[in-house]
Amino acid sequence: MELPAVFKQAGCTTDIYCAKDSWILQSSFYDKWIEASSNEATFLSGLYDIVGKHGNEYDWIIPGDDIILRLLNDTITDEKLFYKLLPLTKIENRELLGSKAGFSNLCDKYDIKTPRFLIYDAGQSPESIAKYMGFPFMMKTDRSEAGTGVFKCDNLHDLIDNLKNVENKHNVVFQQFIEGYDINMEVLYKEGELIVYSYAKLLKILGKFGLSTQRLFSQNTEIIPELRKIGRSIGLNGFASIAFMYNELDKKHYLIEIDVRPNSWIYYGRFTGNDFSEGIKKISKGDLTLVNFDSNKYPSEVKVSLYKKDMMRVIVTKDVKGFLYWMLNKEDCRKYIPTYDKKLLKSTNKYLGWFFKELVKEKVQKLAGSKK
């Protein structure tokens, strides 16, 4: 929902193709809305029709979420259409799109540093998996997203229970647990070349392995060679959310996830010195060099909280300190409230009010049920 503003700041004309209940329509910065069906098959046929008739009018077509990426990847057979719609320059690496197993295979193929992994096979026993992996380790369903379908296994009992609770075990990935902390990055590539990136340590999340709501951004140039290797090897061509685990023991980064689509954090690069609008401007001029960080304009560390998602976390966890953080404008956090867009701000506040009421209603119903 923040992405149209990023493109507007870069001087672009932006059209939106989505269903009428999509959050992106709460933005004031798009130029044209093309209504899409919420039915998957009709959505795709409508999109292919637009691309067939008007595809040459668009310099860039961006699938906005994981579900759309998977739908496109599952249905596109024409190579020219693949390169027009999907954010890769190497069709042979399309297994990356929405697949945890595909991601792990490509890390192995290109010798990209990642935690030890194992892709589940029906012939494997829990004991053999445990012996190969060593506890603790993570278990991820193939098409997990936003923290769903992700489990930690600390012992054999956890592993057996988690496997039992997963209905579709095809391509489940077991991934070594790294002792350290999460590094989240938003990255923009063009034809495999690194254009702009942000680097942040995760501070707060919504859910056990869910959406990050608060991050500490800093400038890390040591990661650049690894980012370039990833982009060029896989052929990344667009926005990506990239996650590493930083191992405090060996002081190294281990790649754990690549999602090749934009997210809300991209807009906030303007506060940290990693402005994605500047990256888009460079691409439009044919300049595929890295956007430089200006240390004279930005501090070395910047703490950013996403207003909507962090307030949801505050409501769910009953975090009084987190509530006061926003109410008292601690660390000047209110500058991250989307006041730049009155339409978006109004919709966000309306949603947070509804979200709070729904949680209260659910709690009341549970209490009434327990009394009965």
Q: Can you put this structure into words, describing what you see?
A:
This protein is an alpha+beta fold and 372 residues long. Among the domains are: 3-85, no CATH class; 116-176, ATP-grasp fold, A domain (Dna Ligase, domain 1); 308-361. 38% of the residues lie in helices and 21% in strands. Strands 7, 8, 9, 10, 11, 12 and 13 form a seven-stranded antiparallel sheet that branches. Strands 3-6-4-5 form a four-stranded antiparallel sheet, with helices on both faces. Strands 1-2 form a two-stranded parallel sheet. A hairpin with a 4-residue loop joins strand 11 (239-247) and strand 12. It is globular, with a radius of gyration of 21 Å. The N and C termini lie far apart (43 Å). The mean pLDDT is 94.
Strand content: 15-25%
Structural Rg: 21 Å
- Which structural class best describes the helix and strand composition? alpha+beta
The coarse silhouette is globular
* Average pLDDT level: 94
Summarize the main sheet: 7 strands, antiparallel
N→C terminal distance? 43 Å
Per DSSP E runs of 2 or more residues, the count of β-strands stands at 13
Which consecutive residue ranges, at least 5 long each, have pLDDT under 50?
none
Query: In DSSP terms, counting alpha (H) and pi (I) runs of 4 or more, how many helices?
Result: 13
Helix content: 25-40%
